[in-house]
Amino acid sequence: MKPPIRHIIAVVVTVLITVTNAFAQQPSESKYETTFDVEKKETTVRLLPVKLSGENDKYHSLHMSPSFKYPGEVPTKPEIIDFELQTVVRGRLRTDLYVLFVVDGERIFLSSNRWAVKRPVPGRVWVGERLVFRMPYETLLKLAAAKKLEIKMDAVIFPISEEHIKLIRKFAEKIKTLPTVRLSNTPRVCGGSFLQ
User: Fold this and answer.
1) Looking at the whole model, is its pTM more than 0.85?
2) Is 6 left (phi over 0), alpha (psi -120 to 50) or beta?
3) Contact criterion met (CB below 8 Å) for 132 and 86
4) Helix (H) or strand (E) holding 156
5) Each residue of 14-57: pLDDT tens digit?
6) How far apart are CA 100 and CA 112, in angstroms?
7) Residue 43 in contact with residue 75, Cβ under 8 Å?
8) Rounded CA gap, 194 and 15, in Å?
9) pLDDT tens profile 92-140
10) Which of the chain's termini has less CB crowding within 10 Å, N or C?
11) What angle (nearest 5°) sits at the alpha carbon of residue 164, between those of residues 76 and 113?
């Protein structure tokens, strides 16, 4: 006897939701990726995407993935952080999206690069968007020290939880321990990955 089509659809939807949730990190976790670009002779350290919010107005989800780069393989403190936000939007993207970081009431506007990601959720006509904000290191420290943090995308406000602020704080603290300038042009062998 064949199972009704609605049971098959329910099973498929359940599996997709489970797989999607498995890939999004939980706030208490923090996983980092360190990569070295041989051609550019540059190392990138990235906090793997962490889900900040689920459904909120036209947004299906919001993730953050801050990163920074340094020349060569010897870690040095960056002046600029690439603070990436990844969204999934039901419907169309706005060409004139205005994004603010609101830190304890202080509104911070940063320039950004953005691009669309087609069909980030299989089977949906939704659009993804990646926004990379050029964030001075001092601004990252403000986010890390915040008692209240929000990300405002036009009229939609995303309150950032204490757990997520702690992840930003941990990321900033790891950077704080790096030397400000390179001591030598000779690369040193570093054991393991940065930010373990």
Assistant:
1) no
2) alpha
3) no
4) strand 156-160
5) 333 333 343 344 444 678 999 999 999 999 999 999 999 999 99
6) 11
7) yes
8) 34
9) 777 788 999 999 999 999 999 999 888 888 888 888 999 999 999 999 9
10) N
11) 60
